[in-house]
Amino acid sequence: IAAAANAWARGAAALPKPWQPQKPVLPVEGMRNILITSALPYVNNVPHLGNIIGCVLSADTFARYCRLRNWNTLYVCGTDEYGTATETKALEEGLTPQEICNKYHAIHADIYSWFDISFDYFGRTTTPHQTRIAQDIFRRLLARGFLLEDTVEQLCCESCQRFLADRFVEGTCPFCSYGEARGDQCDKCGKLINAVELKNPQCKLCRSVPVVKATRHLFLDLPKLEEQLEPWLEQSLARGDWTPNARYITRSWIRDGLKPRCITRDLKWGTPVPLDGFQDKVFYVWFDAPIGYLSITANYTQHWERWWKNPQQ
């Protein structure tokens, strides 16, 4: 209180001059460097107040606070544009997935600009940088033995002549009996689901009953990481400010044992898989989309690694 009263008595002239970062904003030796990201909003809708409050507003508030503290701050975000949600919207509107992305990216950018959200850069995930970085991470995982190949049973709609990934199939959750579970998870009980486990599955496009067929896919070998993950997780839970929900879900995954996680899909819209025998597949959006934070920064500056591979600053 005494320090605040003293600062007030000295007046505004005694305050430090506002920090004016270089453009592009890059880490500066000896300064506190802050990188802020908002959860990437899906590109297949028009944002409303709930999206802004739940997605970008808290990060914007923090970014403004950091700048007022004269911390060197970069705040990036962008639209998440791959995945079945985009394909579904494209079918609804009679457009191509790329046209849907172009249309709704512009709408998102305009709305956030109208609300004066203080992004340093608002990008998107359908860029050459996204493809390059995602495929590079994939190749590194492959070279280090963290990927598995397996044949899986998958739902196929014979009417639409396509395998049904994620949002293209709907049915009853085998765990809690929720009637609108998707092909990758149940939004009611939170459990991960393989689409073939759904009861009473239906193709969301034509409402016909799909059949089960075999197809080859690639998996992250998560069990291989379990030994390293557990001690790291205990330290992180002790030091970090995890929400009760995050703690519960994470502990339940560890308790039940990590399972290999499929990272490819039989779709056309997505980042191509750069491996012989898998050229007709794309990466699963939850493998691909988090890499968007890196690629959006790379679209902002060629020196993006100074933010993402620079723990010293």
Automatic annotation (TrEMBL):
Keywords: Aminoacyl-tRNA synthetase, ATP-binding, Ligase, Nucleotide-binding, Protein biosynthesis
SUPFAM superfamilies: Methionyl-tRNA synthetase (MetRS), Zn-domain, Nucleotidylyl transferase
Pfam families linked: tRNA-synt_1g
GO biological process terms, semicolon-separated: methionyl-tRNA aminoacylation
CDD domains (UniProt xref): MetRS_core (cd00814)
Domain Methionyl/Leucyl tRNA synthetase, first and last residues per copy: 34-311
GO molecular function, a single term: methionine-tRNA ligase activity
Catalytic activity: tRNA(Met) + L-methionine + ATP = L-methionyl-tRNA(Met) + AMP + diphosphate
Record's GO cellular component terms: aminoacyl-tRNA synthetase multienzyme complex; cytosol
Family, as annotated: Belongs to the class-I aminoacyl-tRNA synthetase family.
PANTHER family linked to this entry: METHIONINE--TRNA LIGASE, METHIONINE--TRNA LIGASE, CYTOPLASMIC
Official protein name in the record: Methionine--tRNA ligase, cytoplasmic
